[in-house]
Amino acid sequence: MKQVKNNVKNAIVERETPIISLENVRIRLGNRTIQENINLTVNEGEFIAILGPNGAGKSTLLKLLLGLIKPSVGTVHIMGRPPRRGNTDIGYAPQHRVLEADLALRARDVVGFGLDGHRWGPGWPSRKRNAIIEKALQEVDALHFANAPVGQLSGGEQQRLLIAQALLTNPRLLLLDEPLSNLDITRGQEIVTLVNNLCRARNVAVLLVAHDINPLLNVVDKVIYVANKNCTIGTPEEVITSETLTRLYGSPVEVVKALGRVFVVGAET
Ligand SMILES: Nc1ncnc2c1ncn2[C@@H]1O[C@H](COP(=O)(O)OP(=O)(O)OP(=O)(O)O)[C@@H](O)[C@H]1O
Fold first, then answer.
1. 57 Cβ below 6 A of ligand 1
2. Residue 143 belongs to some domain of the structure
3. Can you tell me where the transmembrane regions are (predicted)?
4. Residues contacting residue 107 through CB under 8 Å, at least 6 positions apart
5. Which tens digit of pLDDT belongs to each residue from 117-154?
6. Is the minimum distance from the CB of 56 to ligand 1 under 6 angstroms?
7. Which domain holds residue 49?
8. Does this complex have an ipTM over 0.90?
């Protein structure tokens, strides 16, 4: 009985532990300070957009969570533990370049690469491995082009494969680096809807790096805005305001709302 109680207690503690916790984090690369003092918490199942100008440190933040770089000051916790490379609780889709048109690999093989280094990686021609790949392809609505040569797929279709790859280990945190870049408005919106559905259905926390908040405005829970070596987190209504962004950039910024869209003016955004 005591064991059962302990198990329940541990399960509750585990559930209540934030997915990400950053305290007083400073990031330096080479001899440059990229971020001064990051404090933020991300909870289970939250859908969060990371925004900010080129070179502000959005991808660097993802690398920190992946354990690829270390903070020079402060603490980083992923599900209560320091970040570590190869953490299967994290699914990561890196920034994507369109693949060569003559690349003859099948879409499903490319997704399968996501299992490399995993216990169902190559050398496991098992039904289990194929079933995992099939499920991920289905979740991103890619079954109908699963056998197509990947180089012939559109940017949006290739993006779905990257997301499928990131889902293979059933992660609790999904890191997507600019999945909307190079997509037209309709394809971009389809990816946003897909990611939102995955986030809600799986209760997986999602950090999605983007340059434009507009396609995400109606679906994200929060925004992390990175600029001028600082970052801030809050709901879009809290963060995408003239006051908050002027404070963050340290120079005048105007947030203009028109035609149902939001425009950030006056800063290098
Ligand atoms: N090893 C390094 N040494 C020094 N500076 C680096 C190193 N790696 C990256 N940087 C710098 O860190 C800054 C942040 O880069 P990062 O790629 O995180 O920006 P970003 O916000 O993702 O930009 P973008 O929107 O253009 O992709 C950039 O100015 C980059 O030049």
1. yes
2. yes
3. none
4. 137, 142, 145, 146, 147, 148, 149, 150, 153, 157, 161
5. 665 555 556 788 889 999 999 999 999 999 999 988 99
6. yes
7. 19-238
8. yes
